Structure formats: structure tokens, C-alpha cells
Amino acid sequence: MKNRQKRIEQARAWNQANPERRRAISKAWDERNPGAAQARRARRAQRERDAPGHHTRAEWLALLSAHHWTCAYCNANLTRPCKDHIIPLSRGGSHDISNILPACRRCNSSKRDRDVAEFIAQLAAPPPSAPSTTPS
Ligand SMILES: [Zn+2]
Predict the structure, then answer these.
(1) What is the pLDDT of residues 65-85, one digit of tens each?
(2) What is the 34 CA–ligand 1 centroid distance (Å)?
(3) In 3-state terms, what secondary structure has residue 134?
(4) CA 97 to chain centre
(5) Which pTM value belongs to this model?
(6) How far is the CA of 126 from the centre of ligand 1 (A)?
């Protein structure tokens, strides 16, 4: 059991140090497993339905407009905006509009289940093993 935890932590560290390889592996896996991505989206939708709070499409569009259709974290222009939960649903966050920020896919997927304060702290201090290339 202890060993399992250690391996999970090692995998997590590798994923953080190799975001591009991680995405390529995930993409390849999705292609080999049709239906898995759809199942993942269905689980996510179910989590949102189960969460306290609710918002309308109009509220979401108003929020996007207030942020000028840019990512709340990196200011990238959003062509395919993601709803980022300030307090993650996995940590009991609400699906109310007050708990949501527009984010690009990159920030949304790298934030995952951390809360905003943790994510911003991590953005400010990238891991030493991170590549020095500027994000595209
Ligand atoms: Zn972003």
C-alpha cells in the first residue's frame, strides 16, 4: 500500500515535468479506446449535476464577456473556453457561476483539482525540471 502511494507520487511528478509527453500519451490512449473520452465527459457532467449550485448559459456567456474571452490565469484568447471551478468540485466546490472562471484548456488541465491559490503559487514557481521554452 505504501509502495502504491510512492508510485502514484512518482507518476504525478513525471506528469508535471513532462506535460507535452503526458498529453501525447493521453491522446494516443483516447484514440485506442473510443468511447473512453465520452465516458469521461459523462462522468464530469454527472459531477456537475451532483454539485451544489447551478448557472445558466447566459451567466457563463456574461462571465466570458467580463473577462474579454481571455483565460483568467494566462490571459490567452479563448476560442474553446473551459469552465474552471475556483474551488474544485472534487473538494466540495459549487457549480454556481461565483465559483467559475474562464480558462484555456492548458491552464484548466494543468490546474486540475488544485484550488486557485495553489495553482497560482505553482505558476509563479515552476518546477526546476520544467523546460525553459515559452508556452505556445
Ligand atoms: Zn490559460
Answers:
(1) 999 999 999 999 999 999 999
(2) 28
(3) coil
(4) 17
(5) 0.63
(6) 15
